[in-house]
Amino acid sequence: MDKSELRHWYDDSVPCRSACPADTDIPGYLEAIYHDDYELAYNINFNDNFFPEILGRVCSRPCEKACRHSAGNNGDSVSICFSKRAAGKYSTTKKPRLRNTQKETNKNILIIGGGVAGLAAAAELRRHGHKVTIYEKHKSLGGMLNQGIPVFRLPRQIIEKEIKQIIDLGIKIKLNTSISNQNEIEQLAKQFDAVVCAMGTLKPNILDTQFKKNLYVEDGLDFLLRVNEKNEKYVGKNVIVIGGGYTSMDCARTAIRLGAKTVKTFYRRKEGDLEILPGELEELVNEKGKMIFSARPFNLVENDGRLKYIELVKTKTSNINSKLIDIPNSKFKIKTDHIILAIGQKQEIKIKNPSENIFYAGDFKLGASTLINAIGDAKKTAADVNKFLMKKNFYKENYSIHKKVKTNRSLEKNYIPITKMQLRDLSKRTFKAEVELGFNKAESKKEASRCYLCHYKFEINNNLCVLCDECLMVRPVNECIKEISSKTTDSDGRVEFNKIDPGNSHGIYHGELYIDPKVCVRCGECEKACPTGAISLTKVSKINAST
């Protein structure tokens, strides 16, 4: 197979990695966990996404949505996220190292913003030998990791550990340093070889002036910042949260822990439109919070200057253009003394026509997004900066093929149920107590063994095939091996084939056999059954190297 064909084979065969914005070698680290090599698993993650244990708790998990284990009747996706967390828990690595590091260039780069995007960009730029300085407006690095995500989801010692690993790469830090306008950035661009703006999205969206001016209405990020960073833990008795994303869940569950009598969250759309972590809504309900769908805020009701009620209106989707509309005569009131708005945010600084050595990364470029999206974008930005500074594209995508004897998988592993995360008892859930307790070693290895190891490639040599159909007899998944009349590779390297009509072609009358990598579960049953050795096994590794 040539490089383009290998690239398409890998993208099609390993959808979890293709779905990861940071291009994490997911099957590589799951295989390492299965073989009890937690150090290798952690280092794979550190090199690909820089925050293994953090992401192992709070990643939005696009990889799991793409996992082939959930396709058809194959069961649940592999718990990729929780397995990543186990890699950090059981690794004894004290100081992970970046691979493919380059010689020092003496180029000086400033990164404005010390959140995940800024830190990821810094690590990637250090990989290329550049000197990096980070300006951070707050008293500590981490951005939303410290300011937004509650302690019961993300322990602070984990944040400190993984940020320190990045700083120890040789990055200079300047805290309590705020940059407030484009002119300041332009001046800094004259002092540094390149500037990366990674200031995130901290300016909250607002509903209208009535909500903006009311003292009892608070922005969600402001609420989390004062609670998490400033130790200001005031909360109302009857709290209303507005929104349907990660921040709304964090605000609601935090308010419960701070002693609110009732916490109700309203979202203008349906449950299927929520952008939250799997299981998060269920835990909100378990913790006595309520979630109400298809309703939006309409008005505030006050009495003697104090907030008494919020008036809402029910919503539905228009049959004409699928636009969200209000239902006539559907207004209703809910008692409240504290409203938290988690309806998104945007950039505080707008930059127009910047100098050519000014770049953007993470949410500052993308808008409010997820941690893994911010990390993935930061890596791309770092590549752009490096190309600009060195006048050359140093990134090189390669694939290597290794002959393998076996995958160490068996058909039985295809039927192992997903490993459930152990949760802290409801009675013991405090402000600081982590809810998800993590896998033990046995659980992590068991869960990793569920991975199909989609980077393994079973292939039939039709010159050796005697058309005995033994492989077709033992295939565990319908059409993992296909009877085809022809196979071609298009100009982009994608394999195309024409299937035989099974009603007219059986046994020795089929043209040839093809193992479909998008259906194969890598059990090896076909290879064992083949009497002529026509089925081979190789391992395909994707290597994103800098040269």
Question: Can you describe this structure?
Answer:
This protein has 547 residues and is of the alpha/beta class. It folds into 4 domains: 3-97 and 398-448, Orthogonal Bundle (Fumarate Reductase Iron-sulfur Protein, Chain B, domain 2), CATH 1.10.1060; 108-202 and 347-393, FAD/NAD(P)-binding domain, CATH 3.50.50; 204-343, FAD/NAD(P)-binding domain, CATH 3.50.50; 456-546, 2-Layer Sandwich (Alpha-Beta Plaits). α3 (26-34) packs antiparallel against α4 (38-49), α8 (116-127) runs parallel beside α17 and α13 (220-228) crosses α14. The protein starts with a helix and ends with a strand.
Put simply, the count of helices is 20
> Which fold does the CATH topology of the largest domain refer to?
Fumarate Reductase Iron-sulfur Protein, Chain B, domain 2
CATH architecture of the largest domain: Orthogonal Bundle
User: Roughly how many Å apart are the termini?
Assistant: 23 Å
Strand order of the largest sheet: 3-2-1-4-15
Number of strands: 21
Pick out the low-confidence regions: none
Radius of gyration: 26 Å
Major sheet: size, sense and barrel closure? Answer: 5 strands, parallel
* Overall mean pLDDT: 91
Strand content: 15-25%
Work out the helicity level: 25-40%
Q: Which word captures the global form?
A: globular
